[in-house]
Amino acid sequence: MRTPLRHYRTCAIVGNGGILLNSSCGNEIDSNDYVIRLNMAPTSNFEQDVGRKTNMTVINWNIAKDIPKKLSDKNTREGVLDFLSPLNHGIISYIKVVTNRIKDALQALDTAMADSGLDISLTYSLDDPQVAITRVLGAALIPKLYNPTSGLIIYTLGTTFCDVISLYGFYPFGTDGHNRTLTYRYNENSPVAIFTDHDFCIEFDFLAWLNNIGAVRLVTDTCR
After folding, report:
1. How confident is the model at residue 157 (pLDDT cuts 50, 70, 90)?
2. For residues 161 and 6, is the Cβ–Cβ distance under 8 A?
3. Domain count of the chain?
4. What is the model's pTM?
């Protein structure tokens, strides 16, 4: 099967954390050989902080089912095409459990993109990535891990095709090291979520440990 995915020396995985706002990390992110983003977070109007380049984006169920609807609606089609065009020749990946309903949504998404002239590969796992990641990492490295986030899943998968990984926007706290108040996401004005379906702090501690031993580069400051 043909795939645009290769092996890369440097990869950036860009989360959506509010710590990216006013970070000036855009150029540094774009300098990586391969850039992965989460859940179609916008880059337009945030280029200075998050960059422009996108080679892969990871999506959730809501996005998978909404995009075909928007592509078929003349009022939203142009905006979605503009949003997807930077990803042309890249990959959209669904990395959560795949049910028959989700398969139908992914098929509709794949057809809609092809009909719109977009050359975007759509991938999904035959197994449940969340269960697999919990089994592998939870056994010894993160004993309290449950319901791993898309960010942790794609980082783990990224280690199979990236030599050096830098993480941006992976920061779950309401203030940064300079006591600056942060929003939950860089493109929204909502406060940092305290109660979610994920334990961001456990995952952050794991990523910070990997950073300390040189296994990953966890960016939690400005890039000036």
Report:
1. very high
2. yes
3. 1
4. 0.92
Beta carbons of 102 and 64 less than 8 angstroms apart: yes
| DSSP codes joined into one string, 98-150 | --HHHHHHHHHHHHHHHHTT---EEEE-SS-HHHHHHHHHHTTT-TT--S--H
The answer to whether 90 touches 120, Cβ cutoff 8 Å, is: yes
Using the structure block, give the residue that is written with the tokens 């990803």: 87
Residue 2 domain-assigned (yes or no): no
Q: What is the CATH number of the domain that holds 205?
A: 3.90.1480.20
Q: Are 30 and 167 in contact (CB under 8 A)?
A: no
Range of the domain at 197: 8-219
Query: Closest Cα partner for 166 from 87, 51, 45?
Result: 51
**What SS3 class is residue 35?**
strand
- 10 pairs with which residues across the strands? 164
Left if phi > 0, otherwise alpha if psi is -120 to 50, otherwise beta: which for 164? beta
Residue 45 in domain: yes
Please write the tens of the pLDDT for every residue from 109-151: 888 888 888 899 999 888 888 888 888 888 789 988 888 999 9
Q: Give the single-character DSSP code of 84.
A: H
Kindly tell me the sign of the dihedral angle through the C-alpha atoms of 156, 192, 172, 185. Answer: positive
pLDDT digit string (tens) for 61-113? 788 888 888 888 889 888 888 888 888 899 999 988 888 888 888 888 888 88
Q: What is the pLDDT of residues 176-213, one digit of tens each?
A: 989 999 999 999 888 886 556 778 889 999 999 999 99
